[in-house]
Write a structure and sequence with these properties.
The complex is a heterodimer of chains A (about 800) and B (about 220). By secondary structure, chain A is of the alpha+beta class. Chain A has 23 helices and 22 strands. In chain A, strands 1, 2, 3, 4, 5, 6, 7, 8, 9, 10 and 11 form an 11-stranded mixed sheet that branches. A 6-stranded mixed barrel of chain A has the order 14-15-20-17-19-18. In chain A, a hairpin with a 6-residue loop joins strand 3 and strand 4. Chain B has one domain: 3-Layer(aba) Sandwich (Rossmann fold), CATH 3.40.50. The chains are: A alpha+beta (about 800), B alpha/beta (about 220).
């Protein structure tokens, strides 16, 4: 075996061109597999970074009659669940939040969460320093402690060993740091998509949650999610049954707050399913794609090894004559192919590492948990197995062929051997057909996704994202404790920013379109009664400042926009979008109609509809617009807001001026998440773009490999036929006759491969349906375009070696022997 | 040692026609014999040699090697018999280009289940016997034709075969180198190795004890 290995090594060194092409082909195939396997391993297989994550559930309520399928819970509801459920070891409640940390060079907004005392026990993760929350921390007045992440500890505190007990100021309030969580700890995972959680923002600060007495009385104010650990031996189904009895009791005990029927309830979603579910189809498709790439690489390598086997027939014949058996020759070829494959595998792993780094740079801010993707030993073992398997696959047929030489022919002086035999040529041609077919399947899939993406880019978002800058502001409750101070900040900020040269319009909103955040609220329509059968409408709800619609260039269809006069002292007003007007006032004018927000109509003031604006695709370009209604932020100022600035120049150049303007109002007020609106829109389709980028890359690799394969086989066949072609030319055949003969033969192979590939693509592209946007999985244009492109490239690949032969002097061709 | 009876070798030409390379060959070769097979090109000399060496399986007739009826043996059994009893010397030497002299000598032994130490001893013996110790780390391309054929002969007999088959062993050599090789054959024959050589050269044929003439596939 060692001798075989040594010989294999010598052969690779002796044929550097062959070795380089083979290693690159294998590296591309294996590198793609390594990268995607790393993704699958990290996002689908590797458990979430919590203790026994299979027992952790995320609980969200639903009001099905109002089409609300997964909404947070209120404080008193959490207390009910926690008190009455026995199916869980522990249950915690949490809410994402932001912390304006002051001190240092400039204030900084840090993403984090508030959570109840049980949170870290439910997740089963211990701090690396200090402690987790204890029940006394979660009482009013004692919640001034913080746990920070290892990342923040290192970044902001320079890994200070005395960090526990240190004081920091966040949101204008003093806190004591009591614990440091390990770098691997991540909660809430952004994918939860619950109130304020955005992609790319990892939590670095956790504060204990202390419900206020007032909060514990209000059932309809829902802002918390529950995370719970199932008791040992209790299934999710049993827990769900218990939750159903608790919600039934809530419906009975609080008839004013819940419908009588079972349209209200709570669902316990396994955390794995919530986090991993949405990624699964994409990853499986990518896995299939890289498998196809690897198959094409194997077909390529097989043709290369067959060509080399032909040139080694004499050597194999001598070995047989010297006593080598069929198995020994097969073993030797397999050792060579596996060795070659392992060399390619090493290059592939390096390529995979580089690819993952690139992938992270492109997608970490937009694809959940991408930062966790790495190359661990599971992936390395899988890659090793794939490399060995690949070596066996592409070495087997050439090995079997080599093990059966015709000794009488190969050992004769000038013997032809069997390399030119029809059986082996059929095999080569079959491999070309397979390569074309497999490449076509991948190209078609990539083509459909690219066309979808182009369609999506042309969709009208409902606003103009060009030259718009956005940034987030979070007003601390301690400094901005009432509506008046918050309203004052927003008014002043808007005035100062609007006066900056180059800025055309500025406005605030509590929720930015396509930012991954959302909010909804129920409302009553004046003159329309709601009951169990006709519950109050619940639609998308925004709070925006005057100037917001103009800054976003959301079209005003009727009425007027908000103005400075729509302040806290003025009568409440609202603006609705066209979809909401159509749904609730389909045959009448909505302007002048009145609605009120909140469950208890009697206590709220009626707001008059003063305008109707165009629809906005808030959830993403690929989602239809939903009914929305807007309230002026000046009448109900929120502490979280997004500043939207439209400029007449490059928006990014204004960041410094805006920051200065805001500091003049409040030096401790940081801005965060500064992005152009175009970036926000681009980020909203980032997972889709990433999948296209990857599938497109794999399709390009497949096309390159298939072209190289076709070129290689055609070169081989043409060289074999050089003598014959020389005879034909000597007998009067013109160059075009030779071209027609050889390229025509290649065209038949390509056509056969194309037809098989088209049939296979037609049968499988429906698997992409969920990822397509306004494009049929059997889109004829895409199928036709891809076929023409592949056919043309394949024909060029077969033309090049043929053209070389027809330029040869017929006498030289006649002298050629194989 | 060898008895051939009614051996025929043919190839189909299509349309039911057959081309005969060898016809009705009857030949006995005794142990210790040194036979030279002669004849014009296309007479079937090399084909006969490959049948004797059990490389070719497409023949009909009876072939006895010692007590073994080769015509009844399966492919694997023939390969085993060949490995034990037959060595080959080729006109083009057929050394493996990417192996050193030492490795070329070692390779037949590696296919015959010798232990590593036995192989080392046998190769060292052969290098010594053929006086090529100084060349053991050279590759075939670094040797002259005569030296390459010397290695080829050494490789053919390293596993101590009873029968040595040689196909134009001096065909590519300078006359003086050819004589050296033929002297070597004579010496091996004197040591008890049975030799069958194919040759066009009367002079080389004269080193043998008898000559078999082939013409158009027939022994004449």
């Amino acid at each position: 075996m060692l001798n075989d290995l040594r010989f294999a090594f010598r052969l690779l060194l002796k044929n550097p061109a062959f070795t380089a092409v083979a290693v690159v082909a294998i590296a591309l195939g294996i590198g793609a597999n390594t990268a995607v396997l790393s993704l699958v391993n990290a996002l689908l297989i590797r458990p979430l970074p919590y203790r026994a994550p299979a027992r952790i559930v995320l609980m969200l309520e639903h009001f099905r009659a109002q089409h609300l399928d997964a909404i947070p819970v209120s404080a008193p509801e959490f207390v009910d669940y926690q008190t009455n459920c026995r199916s869980f070891d522990e249950m915690a409640v949490f809410q994402p939040g932001t912390f304006n940390v002051s001190g240092g060079d400039r204030p900084e907004r840090i993403f984090g969460a508030v959570g109840s005392a049980e949170l870290f026990n439910v997740l089963g993760v211990a701090p690396i320093r200090g402690r987790v929350f204890e029940p006394p921390d979660c009482t009013a007045g004692h919640d001034d402690v913080l746990i920070i992440s290892e990342r923040l500890w290192k970044r902001r505190f320079n890994a200070d060993p005395q960090i526990i007990g240190s004081k920091i100021v966040a949101n204008g309030r003093g806190f004591t740091i009591v614990g440091v969580m390990p770098a691997s700890f991540e909660f809430p995972i952004p994918l939860f998509g619950i109130q304020g959680a955005q992609f790319g923002e990892r939590a670095d600060v956790w504060q204990p949650l202390a419900f206020t007495a007032q909060e514990l009385k209000i059932r309809y104010s829902r802002g918390y999610a529950i995370v719970a650990r199932l008791a040992q031996g209790v299934s999710a189904k049993q827990a769900q049954a218990e939750l159903d009895t608790v919600t039934a009791a809530m419906r009975r005990n609080y008839p004013d707050n819940y419908p009588k029927d079972d349209s209200f309830g709570i669902t316990a979603f396994p955390l794995n399913q919530v986090v991993l579910g949405p990624m699964k189809p994409l990853l499986l498709i990518l896995l299939a794609a890289v498998f196809l790439v690897l198959l094409i690489a194997c077909a390529n390598l097989t043709t290369m090894m067959l060509a080399r086997a032909a040139s080694r027939e004499r050597e194999m014949g001598i070995r047989v004559a010297l006593g080598a058996g069929r198995w020994r020759l097969l073993r030797q070829v397999l050792v060579e192919s596996i060795f070659l494959s392992l060399c390619g595998g090493i290059a592939g792993v390096l390529l995979g590492i580089w690819g993952l780094d690139l992938l992270k740079r492109i997608g970490t801010q937009t694809v959940p948990r991408l930062s966790e993707v790495n190359l661990d030993w599971h992936v390395l073992i899988a890659t090793f197995v794939i490399a060995v398997g690949t070596g066996i696959v592409f070495g087997l047929v050439p090995g079997l062929v080599s093990g059966d030489p015709n000794l009488t022919e190969t050992l004769k002086e000038g013997g032809r051997g069997l390399s030119s035999g029809p059986r082996r040529n059929h095999l080569r041609q079959a491999l070309v057909i397979a390569e074309v077919a497999l490449a076509l399947v991948l190209l078609t899939s990539a083509g459909l996704l690219i066309k979808s993406f182009v369609q999506l880019q042309n969709v009208d978002a409902g606003f103009n994202p060009q030259n718009v800058l956005t940034m987030e502001i979070s007003l601390p409750a301690l400094t901005y404790s009432d509506n008046a101070t918050r309203a004052r900040f927003y008014n002043e900020a808007q005035k100062r920013i609007a006066s900056i040269p180059g800025i055309k319009k500025a406005g605030f909103t509590n929720i930015l379109p396509m930012s991954g955040t959302n909010s909804d609220s129920s409302f009553n329509i004046e003159g329309r009664m709601s009951d169990d059968k006709n519950p109050s409408p619940d639609e998308e709800f925004r709070q925006v400042s005057p100037g917001f619609f103009e800054a976003m260039e959301i079209s005003l269809l009727r009425g007027r926009p908000f103005s400075e006069s729509d302040n806290a002292d003025a009568p409440p007003v609202t603006i609705i979008n066209a979809a909401l007007a159509k749904r609730y006032w389909p045959n009448e004018d909505a302007i002048g109609k009145r609605i009120n927000v909140g469950a208890s109509a009697a206590k709220e003031k009626w707001a008059t509809i003063i305008g109707i604006v165009g629809n906005v695709r808030h959830r993403g370009l690929d989602y239809d617009p939903l009914p929305e209604y807007y309230m002026p932020i000046t009448q109900t100022p929120n502490s979280q807001a997004v500043l939207v600035v439209r400029s007449s120049q490059d928006a990014a150049s204004l960041i410094s001026a805006i920051r200065t303007a805001l500091r003049e109002i409040d030096p401790a007020q940081p801005i965060a998440h500064v992005r152009t609106l175009e970036q926000v829109v681009a980020d909203s389709v980032a997972p889709r773009r990433l999948s296209i980028w990857l599938l497109g890359l794999f399709a390009a690799i497949a096309l390159s490999l298939a072209s190289i394969g076709i070129y290689g086989v055609m070169s081989f066949l043409v060289v074999q036929r050089t003598h014959e072609l020389g005879v034909r030319m000597a007998l009067g055949a013109q160059r075009r006759d030779i071209l027609r003969l050889v390229v025509g033969h290649a065209a038949k192979l390509i056509l056969t491969g194309t037809l098989i590939g088209l049939a296979f693509a037609f049968a499988t592209t429906h698997l992409l349906a969920a990822m397509l946007y306004h494009v049929s999985p059997h889109d004829l244009t895409t199928f036709a375009f891809v076929t023409v492109v592949l056919g043309a490239i394949a024909l060029v690949a077969s033309y090049i070696p043929t053209s070389r032969v027809i330029r040869t002097d017929p006498m030289l061709a006649l002298a050629h022997t194989t | 040692m060898i008895r051939l009876h009614n051996i025929e070798r043919s190839y189909p030409l299509g349309r039911g026609q057959i081309f005969y390379v060898l016809r009705d060959i009857d030949l006995d070769i005794a142990t210790g014999d040194f036979v030279s097979v002669m004849g014009p090109s296309g007479a079937g000399k090399s084909t006969l040699l490959h049948i004797l060496g059990m490389h070719d399986h497409g023949w009909t007739g009876e072939y006895f090697f010692d007590e073994a009826a080769v015509h009844h043996l399966k492919s694997k059994e023939r390969a085993s018999l060949r490995n034990e009893q037959v060595g080959f010397v080729f006109q083009q030497y057929h050394l493996l280009d990417d192996l050193t002299v030492y490795e070329n000598l070692d390779i037949p032994l590696s296919y015959r289940h010798y232990s590593k130490s036995e192989r080392a001893a046998l190769v060292a013996d052969a290098l010594d016997r053929f006086q090529i110790v100084g060349k053991k780390d050279l590759y075939p391309r670094q040797l002259s034709g005569g030296q390459q054929q010397l290695v080829g002969v050494a490789r053919a007999i390293i596993a101590s075969p009873k029968l040595l088959l040689a196909d134009e062993p001096t065909g590519n050599l300078h006359s003086s180198q050819g004589e050296e090789i033929m002297e070597l054959f004579r010496k091996l024959n004197e040591e008890g190795v049975t030799i069958v050589q194919v040759t066009h050269s009367e002079k080389n044929a004269s080193y043998g004890k008898r000559i078999v003439q082939l013409r158009d596939g027939w022994i004449v």
